[in-house]
Amino acid sequence: MSSNVDSAETQTVVKKQKKQKPARKQVKPGEVEKKEAPQTGKEYNIWYNKWAGGDREDSYSNKTKSQTRCNIRKDSGLTRADTTGVKYCCLFFSRGCCPYGWECEYLHTLPDASKALPDTSKDCFARDKFSDYRDDMGGVGSFTRQNRTLYIGRIKETGTGVETEEVVRRHFKEWGEIEKIRVLQYRSVAFVTYVSESHAQFAKEAMACQSLDNDEILNVRWATEDPNPVSKVTEKQRLEEIGREAIQARMDPRIVDAMRAVRALEDGDGLDDEEETVDGEGEAEPQAKRRRLEIEDARDTPPEVEPVPKQEQPQQPTGLLSADTLEGLKYFAEIRKRNALANNPVKVAAVPPPRGLGLADYGSDDE
């Protein structure tokens, strides 16, 4: 039965691979007209790509609609990146104006949310992130915060908030799975939160200066942090869960099982209720009990240590003088004895040998 299921899954994968086609060229070289930002001030800021010193409303009204738009179903396909191993998407493909098609060095598809990017300091288009957001919340974004929410401005509302939400969802669901949408009625503003940050990055470039159903020109920016305390707690828990899963995925499962067994033993929880395993001889023994016995044996067995050869320790003195001092006194006493024997051997023989200064046995019971 399992072999039939595996063969069916294999056939499904093969069919999906056969359906993939080379990516088509979205535009012809030179077809898209390059338009410079209209002058609304006195100085041009290359960082913000706009003129400084002009009226804010004039800069918004002078926004031009994008000439192209990406269509995931038609434009997605194989490129050279599928053979070279590049994991980043084509920026011009997301905007619908890549003239290379299957010859492009980047992916012509949506980013894979199940796989992490090689470098977390870059977005899905291989652009470097910065430590903080720009003043207008545009650009690539920041690597200090995982932002999955887009700010959508200049929406033309023609009905209720529910109808506007359906229009926004229909246009933005093409770029990835949406977690939630919030529309601020009578303010022409909506917030779209994606499940994956990479999909939010792709959607921000794909929907910049695009229109919904009323020929408006959208203002797509990164959303600021949600001030709602409940949202802050939920986001913190979600990030902690992602970090916990990432750590567990990199740990050796044997170490995880051993840690759980030791923790259960320390807490006094019984592990005999787990499933029993049958060995080769047909004898059933609880797996947890066997693991516990192995841990207890490892604790009771002393570590094997090579015996250290005993070294002769010098005799510690029991008096006030050190061993070197006593040796010196014995040496001088022996010389004195020899001199006395040489001068008067008979008289000295009757005299008992000297006992030194009487300090060698200080503190003993005899003295």
Automatic annotation (TrEMBL):
Q: Where in the cell is it found?
A: Nucleus
* Gene Ontology CC: Prp19 complex; U2-type catalytic step 1 spliceosome; U2-type catalytic step 2 spliceosome
Bias-annotated ranges (Acidic residues): 267-284
Which SMART domains does this one have?
RRM
User: What are the boundaries of the signal sequence?
Assistant: none
Swiss-Prot/TrEMBL keywords: Cell cycle, Metal-binding, mRNA processing, mRNA splicing, Nucleus, RNA-binding, Spliceosome, Zinc, Zinc-finger
Residues in RRM domain copies = 148-225
The entry assigns this protein to a family as follows:
Belongs to the RRM CWC2 family.
What name is this protein filed under?
Answer: Pre-mRNA-splicing factor CWC2
